[in-house]
Amino acid sequence: MNRRRARSVLPGRGLSTGITLTYLSLVVLIPFAALLLRASSISPGRFVELVTTPRALHAFALTVGASFIAALVNTVFGVLVAWVLVRYEFFGKSVLDAVVDLPFALPTAVAGIALTALYTPNGWLGRLFEAAGVRAAFSPLGVVIALTFVSLPFVIRTVGPVLADFEREQEEAAATLGASRLVAFRRVILPAVLPATITGFSLAFARALGEYGSVVFISGNLPRRTEVVPFLIMARLEEYDYDGATAIAVVMLGLSFVLLFALGRVETFFRRRGLGDAT
After folding, report:
1. Region for residue 252 given its phi and psi (left: phi exceeds 0; alpha: psi -120 to 50; beta: otherwise)
2. Residues 200-229 pLDDT 10s
3. Would residue 268 count as lying in a domain?
4. Which CATH number covers residue 182?
5. Domains in the chain: how many in total?
6. DSSP line for 16-60
7. Residue 103 backbone phi and psi in degrees, to 5
8. Are 119 and 222 contacting, i.e. CB atoms less than 8 angstroms apart?
9. Is residue 80 part of a domain?
10. Residue 1, in any domain of the structure
11. CA dist., res. 228 & res. 210, Å (int)
């Protein structure tokens, strides 16, 4: 007897799949394919020369390093903020919850101007840094500050729903069995939120990699000091160096894909491990 194919709950599977693939192709795949096609016209030797200049290598290192630090900072404090917003009730909670989403809605140029005004040597916070012998604006630290600001909501909004759905009875059961709060967090809560935390880190990292508007103002865009890859690409375009801009963009595309793919594999590993432990 032939098995009948299970009918989908929603009709039009073929149509919806076709629309999805078409949409993704128009928005994502075709532009990337055009970029790769443009890069294929550059000889391998010329390509390597364009992406290995001291200016380009420093921009790559600063962009990836600052993005990683910003995502890591937001992962640590984002989990803490998500925990407070989900577990505690206090005056002004709704306002704080709305503030978390501000980097989503605020134009990055506005964020850059605001951060620069705060962290310049004459700014409110910049004076404190200068008194401590630390220069915030127009330094790599300023780049990290800007990237931390724009990637702030991702971990919070990813971990928050997981914490909200987490059954507190599991914590109570662990406490009944004699587990301390630290042990209960490490053995019960952490495995449940770890996949979401890695997802939030990946999103924050990806957001920081492509940031341009807020970094332009606070970094000063000093070549081989505070210049990030998006600004270097724009500089190459303004110089009509289309080959240089294309080569750098392709490397950044490939680097971003590899890093996000690796983080996705790590997330899948912990998710499967968590499901396995839960069963």
Report:
1. alpha
2. 998 999 899 988 888 988 988 888 899 999
3. yes
4. 1.10.3720.10
5. 1
6. HHHHHHHHHIIIIIHHHHHHHHHHTTS-HHHHHHHHSSHHHHHHH
7. -60, -25
8. no
9. yes
10. no
11. 9
pTM (predicted TM-score)? 0.83
Q: Which pLDDT does position 119 carry in this prediction?
A: 92
pLDDT single digits (tens) 7-25:
555 556 777 888 888 888 8
* Residue range(s) defining the domain that contains residue 57: 44-278
Q: Put residue 221 in one of left, alpha, beta given phi > 0 → left and psi -120 to 50 → alpha.
A: left
2 occurs within a structural domain: no
pLDDT, the chain, mean: 84
- pLDDT average, residue stretch 162-185: 69
- Lookup: tokens for 10: 């929603």
Please state, in angstroms and rounded to a whole number, the distance separating the CA atoms of residues 120 and 127. Answer: 8
- Residues 6+ away with beta carbon under 8 Å from 267: 195, 198, 199, 202
SS3 label, residue 218? helix
